[in-house]
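Annotators were shown the component list below and the corresponding predicted structure, then asked to write short factual statements about the assembly.
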Amino acid sequence: MPELAEVAFYCRRWSPSIGAIVEDVLLHADKRVFRGHGSAKAATLAGRELMGRRLVSTRTHGKQMLHGFEGGRWLAVHLGMTGELSRPLVEGLRLGRHDHLALRMSDGHCLVFTDPRQFGVASIEVVEDGREPDWWRALPPEISSPAFTRSRVSEALRRHARSPIKPLLLDQAWFPGIGNWMADELLWRLRWRPSALAGLAAASPESAPALWRETRRLCRDALKVISHDWGDPPASWLFRHRWKDGGFCPRRSCGTPLAREDLRGRTTCWCPRCQG
DNA sequence: GAGCCTGTTCGGGC
DNA sequence: GGCCCGAACAGGCT
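Structure shown to annotators:
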C-alpha cells in the first residue's frame, strides 16, 4: 500500500512509544527484509544495538522512515509493497510468520514490522557523531519542503525528456513519496496523458510550475485525508475509481469510461477524454 | 490455477 | 557515462 501518506500513517503508529525503552528485540535475521546487513549474523548483531535504548524519534521522508534511539542507534524501515507497522499490546501477543521485527517496549506495547512479500527493508545502524545517518541527510528534497522548487521540477522534465511522464513521477530521486496511485491522480488532475514524454511538458513554460503546484497540493491533500486515520479520499478523486476495470472519470460533466493499462510494468489508469 | 499487484534494483541496450 | 526499459524479487488475494 504505502506511498507518502500511508507511510506517514504507519510511522505515526509507533510514535506513542517515544520515551519507552526497548526491553527485547525479536528479529528474524534470515529474512530478505534484512538484506541490507549482508548476512543474518550481521543483522542479529545490529538488532542487539537497540537493546535497552529509549525510542526518541520517528520520522518519514517520502517513503522512507527513520526511528531514532538513544546513543545514535537508528532503525530505518522501507515498507516496500506490502509492509506495515503496528503497535499491539505485549500481553497476549502472538507474532505471525510475516512479522520480521518486533521490539518489546517498556510501555507494554510491541513495535512490529510486518511484510508478507518482503519487498520492504529494515536496517539498524549506529552513528557515533549524534547526527542522522549520512544517507538520510543526502535524501532529495521532500515535496513539502522549500527546497522542492519549480526549477527542480523543470530540471527533472528536461533531464528525462525522453521518458514518459508517469515513470518520471515514480522516480524517488525527483518526487520522493509519489507512488503509483498518486502519479495517476496527479496526471489526471493536470489532464496530462501518462504516456506523454516528459520533454513535451518541458517544452511548455506553464508545465513545470503546474506540475510543481499540483504535486505539492496532492501531497498536502493526501496527508490530510490518509495519514491520521486512513480515511478514504473523496469520490471526486480518481483514487476511488482507478482500482479495477469498469470505472468512470469522476470529473463533473465527464463520466467517460476510464482506461486501464500497463505502462512500464505499472498499472496505469487515466481518462481518455480529459487526458487526451 | 491463473492473473494481479500502492516498490525498487539490476543488467542489457542504445 | 547517461538514460530507458524489462525482468526479477514473493506471497496473498480474487
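Statements collected:
1. Chain A has a mean pLDDT of 95.
2. The CA atoms of residues 193 and 275 of chain A lie 5 Å apart.
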